[in-house]
């Protein structure tokens, strides 16, 4: 076991989708399976980090030595994450957080009525951007950007807007990379905007490559 600079560090990872309630029996969500975030949690724990995994609704087994907190909505994920903002050394946001939620979910079950139904959606808090805003210079913020086109440009824009130390551009092609599948194609973009294109890898291998890049960002304890 070679020494990792993540050894003993407190690492928070978000994973999976969020569910935003329309009424008591329906919700808005997305196809995230949590596999990418769970693979990062496993790999970080293997490197000796103290890992807290904030998981949206997924059907995955908790990796060994990982503390898991289950949440449902973006607001719940934000509330759980906020408790950890101050103490974590690294925050990795692999969750596919819903950008919007129904403004006022109906109580009970919404009745079928008429040909049209309008829902007013309200913006959710941006968990990762809030972390970056509050973090000290020694804390590390890592994000993902799932993009179908103009990936590099959009990912760099997100890295700058959210003040991230590292962003993993996640190429979405609907078959071998992105949601649900076992493999992923990532491009790692650092704070100098240099891009490292990784090949199509299993999500565990992609997680290891991402954490190698994170290890290089950790300042040796003085
Ligand atoms: O779970 P899998 O099926 O394995 O799929 C993995 C994945 C594709 C979900 C994952 O690798 C990924 O790319 N996650 C980010 C998806 C995305 O498109 O994020 P975004 O572009 O909406 O947001 C950019 C970053 O801000 C992300 O790190 C996101 O977690 C974070 N964010 C976004 C919105 C919000 N309200 N809060 C956030 O923290």
From TrEMBL:
<keyword id="KW-0210">Decarboxylase</keyword>
<comment type="similarity">
    <text>In the N-terminal section; belongs to the HFCD (homo-oligomeric flavin containing Cys decarboxylase) superfamily.</text>
</comment>
<comment type="function">
    <text>Catalyzes two sequential steps in the biosynthesis of coenzyme A. In the first step cysteine is conjugated to 4'-phosphopantothenate to form 4-phosphopantothenoylcysteine. In the second step the latter compound is decarboxylated to form 4'-phosphopantotheine.</text>
</comment>
<keyword id="KW-0812">Transmembrane</keyword>
<keyword id="KW-0472">Membrane</keyword>
<keyword id="KW-0479">Metal-binding</keyword>
<dbReference type="GO" id="GO:0071513">
    <property type="term" value="C:phosphopantothenoylcysteine decarboxylase complex"/>
</dbReference>
<protein>
    <recommendedName>
        <fullName>Coenzyme A biosynthesis bifunctional protein CoaBC</fullName>
        <ecNumber>4.1.1.36</ecNumber>
        <ecNumber>6.3.2.5</ecNumber>
    </recommendedName>
</protein>
<comment type="similarity">
    <text>In the C-terminal section; belongs to the PPC synthetase family.</text>
</comment>
<feature type="binding site">
    <location>
        <position position="158"/>
    </location>
    <ligand>
        <name>CTP</name>
    </ligand>
</feature>
<dbReference type="GO" id="GO:0004632">
    <property type="term" value="F:phosphopantothenate--cysteine ligase activity"/>
</dbReference>
<keyword id="KW-0288">FMN</keyword>
<keyword id="KW-0285">Flavoprotein</keyword>
<keyword id="KW-0460">Magnesium</keyword>
<keyword id="KW-0511">Multifunctional enzyme</keyword>
<comment type="pathway">
    <text>Cofactor biosynthesis; coenzyme A biosynthesis; CoA from (R)-pantothenate: step 2/5.</text>
</comment>
<dbReference type="GO" id="GO:0015937">
    <property type="term" value="P:coenzyme A biosynthetic process"/>
</dbReference>
<dbReference type="GO" id="GO:0004633">
    <property type="term" value="F:phosphopantothenoylcysteine decarboxylase activity"/>
</dbReference>
<comment type="function">
    <text>Catalyzes two steps in the biosynthesis of coenzyme A. In the first step cysteine is conjugated to 4'-phosphopantothenate to form 4-phosphopantothenoylcysteine, in the latter compound is decarboxylated to form 4'-phosphopantotheine.</text>
</comment>
<feature type="binding site">
    <location>
        <position position="99"/>
    </location>
    <ligand>
        <name>CTP</name>
    </ligand>
</feature>
<keyword id="KW-0436">Ligase</keyword>
<feature type="binding site">
    <location>
        <position position="109"/>
    </location>
    <ligand>
        <name>CTP</name>
    </ligand>
</feature>
<dbReference type="GO" id="GO:0015941">
    <property type="term" value="P:pantothenate catabolic process"/>
</dbReference>
<keyword id="KW-1133">Transmembrane helix</keyword>
<feature type="binding site">
    <location>
        <position position="144"/>
    </location>
    <ligand>
        <name>CTP</name>
    </ligand>
</feature>
<keyword id="KW-0456">Lyase</keyword>
<feature type="domain" description="DNA/pantothenate metabolism flavoprotein C-terminal">
    <location>
        <begin position="6"/>
        <end position="216"/>
    </location>
</feature>
<feature type="binding site">
    <location>
        <begin position="125"/>
        <end position="128"/>
    </location>
    <ligand>
        <name>CTP</name>
    </ligand>
</feature>
<feature type="binding site">
    <location>
        <position position="162"/>
    </location>
    <ligand>
        <name>CTP</name>
    </ligand>
</feature>
<dbReference type="GO" id="GO:0046872">
    <property type="term" value="F:metal ion binding"/>
</dbReference>
<dbReference type="GO" id="GO:0010181">
    <property type="term" value="F:FMN binding"/>
</dbReference>
<feature type="region of interest" description="Phosphopantothenate--cysteine ligase">
    <location>
        <begin position="11"/>
        <end position="222"/>
    </location>
</feature>
<comment type="pathway">
    <text>Cofactor biosynthesis; coenzyme A biosynthesis; CoA from (R)-pantothenate: step 3/5.</text>
</comment>
